[in-house]
From TrEMBL:
Domain Glucose/Sorbosone dehydrogenase: residue ranges: 32-277
Protein name, entry field: Glucose/Sorbosone dehydrogenase domain-containing protein
Pfam families, sorted: GSDH (PF07995)
Lineage: Bacteria, Bacillati, Bacillota, Bacilli, Bacillales
Length: 464
């Protein structure tokens, strides 16, 4: 693969942690503006170098970082514009709702023990009281006076833990015209309740929402499962994929009269993975509720598989702390999924001794690049990792890329050399975005792992 070198060109700085970067054109306007959503609940847009507030919902978003030392995976997580936004002004939000903090559904640091069946067969019980928070997906409209207004709620979802809610979690499919919600497995670690493989659980799935259908419900019930939804809402939903651990959105690349879909699965302790698929068999939720043993899903394999490997617990070797041993956590599940899971397009590891690779932390963005101004990247898939593991003095994220192989097999990846001096500042690469034509790339960087450390964010354009 080619060696690619890029520069980072700052667009805006001193903002809160950015979760979504995408562009659109306001109704009646002619300028394609960059929209920036922050985890705390702000949305800005930038056009002709001017930064303006589009919407501020901080009073609607749950208090962040209070119970986790400043780190949090809740907040404003998704922003998507209707494909006809220029004409109808419709856009969609996914966020964690203020005032819904619960006690949680169990330990945040669960670890399975293959010798203890009880740890392999846990269930989420007392869901109405034992949960962490509630997420909502809403439809909004930009009114003729330029002010956004909420129109309706599409989903209210009860979540067991504070983490794995997805990020950049709403995107419209140019193929079907539907809104796509990408949501994680509910959190903790190792998916203790095996939610991602349960067909009736909403968490751990990639879900299509037909927003053209009117459900006649302004405030849907708070649910965790598809069979708890009213039939009118079930009728708007289809399932694209399951076996998701945590996911930084889905992206679409037009190729030979079809769309290739890209989605990443954030790993547990060993590997981060990027998946691609063109064809899939969408399962209507109404059909799923009638017969939950449906087959035909795209299946990323979690929790039995972590990318291309059976999910494993990792422990230090007793006689040599520099070595570790990996024990398959869910052997029977790994065997059952071995022939039906989707293999990843590429993977990268948390530990990698190869000099041209890196040890990663968490996948934070996946975007195809269709421009021609960055030599060597055209037609390829760019991805970001939160922070390179290693001995460097300052924390810094990683840019890399891969591409589809003609034979469809797993491919290698290459690190993109990035020219920018962050000085003594930490630089966590927290999100990746693109414009409407996918010929420009945007990178969100934050100076802290804690969302409660405010105004440490910078958004860059990736240029050559």
């Amino acid at each position: 693969m080619k060696n690619v070198k890029v520069r980072l060109e700052p667009i805006v700085s001193k903002i809160n942690l950015p979760t979504v970067l995408k562009t659109n054109i306001l109704p009646g306007d002619s300028v394609e503006r960059l929209f920036i959503a922050t985890q705390v609940g702000e949305i800005f847009h930038i056009g002709n170098g001017v930064v303006r507030t589009f919407l501020d919902i901080r009073n609607r978003v749950i208090e962040l970082g209070a119970s986790s030392g400043g780190y949090d995976e809740r907040g404003l997580l998704g922003l998507a514009f209707h494909l006809n936004f220029y004409y109808n002004g419709l856009f969609y939000l996914h966020y964690s709702v203020a005032g819904t903090q619960g006690p949680g559904a169990g330990s945040k640091d669960f670890k399975p023990d293959p010798c203890d069946p009880e740890t392999l067969n846990q269930r989420w019980v007392n869901r109405e009281t034992q949960y962490d928070h509630i997420d909502t997906v809403e439809e909004w409209v930009l009114q003729s006076n330029g002010k956004p207004q909420k129109r309706r709620t599409l989903l209210n979802l009860r979540r067991p833990f504070f983490n794995h809610n997805g990020v950049n979690s709403l995107n419209f499919s140019p193929e079907t015209g539907k809104l796509v919600l990408t949501t994680g497995d509910g959190g903790s670690s190792y998916d203790p309740f095996n939610i991602s493989q349960n067909n009736l659980e909403i968490a751990g799935k990639i879900i299509e929402i037909d927003v053209s259908k009117n459900t006649s419900l302004q405030n849907p019930p708070i649910v965790t499962r598809f069979d708890e939804l009213p039939p009118t809402i079930q009728d708007t939903l289809t399932i694209m994929a399951k076996g998701v651990r945590n996911i930084p959105g889905i992206s679409f690349q037009r190729f030979n009269q079809q769309y290739i879909k890209y989605a990443g699965n954030v790993g547990q302790d060993m590997v981060e993975s990027i998946y691609s698929f063109a064809h899939y068999n969408p399962i209507p939720v109404t059909q799923l509720v009638q017969a939950s043993n449906q087959n035909g899903f795209i299946n990323f394999g979690w929790r039995g598989w972590e990318g291309a490997f059976p999910t494993s617990t990792i422990n230090e070797c007793t006689n040599n702390s520099s070595l570790d041993k990996k024990t398959i956590a869910y052997y029977n599940e790994a065997v059952a999924l071995s022939g039906s899971r989707l293999p990843p397009l590429t993977s990268y590891f948390h530990k990698d001794p190869r000099p041209d690779k890196f040890g990663g932390t968490a996948l934070t963005g996946v975007q195809p690049y269709m421009g021609n101004k960055i030599e060597g990247l055209s037609g390829n898939v760019v991805f970001t990792d939160l922070a390179r593991r290693g001995s460097q003095s300052q924390v810094k994220g990683v840019l890399a890329y891969t591409s589809i192989r003609p034979d469809g097999k797993q491919n290698d990846f290459s690190v993109i050399q990035t020219d920018y001096d962050f000085g003594s500042q930490s630089a966590y690469y927290v999100t990746l975005g693109t414009n409407l034509n996918q010929n420009r790339l945007y990178l969100g960087v934050y100076g802290s792992m804690k969302v409660a450390d405010f105004n440490k964010g910078t958004v860059f354009e990736i240029v050559q």
